[in-house]
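Below is our example:
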Amino acid sequence: MKERWPAPSSWVYRQACNFLSAADLLLDSPNTAVEPYFVNAGLAVELFLKSCLSVDHFEEYGSVITIGDVEPSATSKMFVYKFSEVESEKSKTHCLPTLWSQISQERRNIINREFSKSGKFKGYKKFCSVLNKLDGLFVDARYSYSDPEFFEKRKAYFLPLHAASFLKEAVCQLEGVP
């Protein structure tokens, strides 16, 4: 029997947190590795968005007889994580504005409300404008050797880290929101 837990996916969210931690470590290292920092921060932003579009799949692997205040015959189901999936083919992209547009309006409203309260993003009225600025970062940073203007394009050096850190907090507000 397969069980599904609705998005946001805690497993994709955790993976995004890991990439954010890696970006943070790279930024703080004495020999700052700029491209890997951008790749990890950009991927964290992408995965936080995908966590809002993903479903976790679990499989029942047994039952436990509960003891204590519960009737002796009562059992609890136990589940093991199997995988997460982004259910829409259109969500299998690196395009941040495309991912944003697929998140439900209710969830985008909550993220935008948290965004306006954050005060971290001077010059940006809505979170989608930050995503537009960061779009392509993950891909561009991986191939920065072939684009001499890469660093000029990415003057907002801390923006990806701030965006990923913001999403880490904001996505937690979405639990139970369709």
Summary: The first strand starts at residue 2 and ends at 5. The chain has one domain: 2-174.
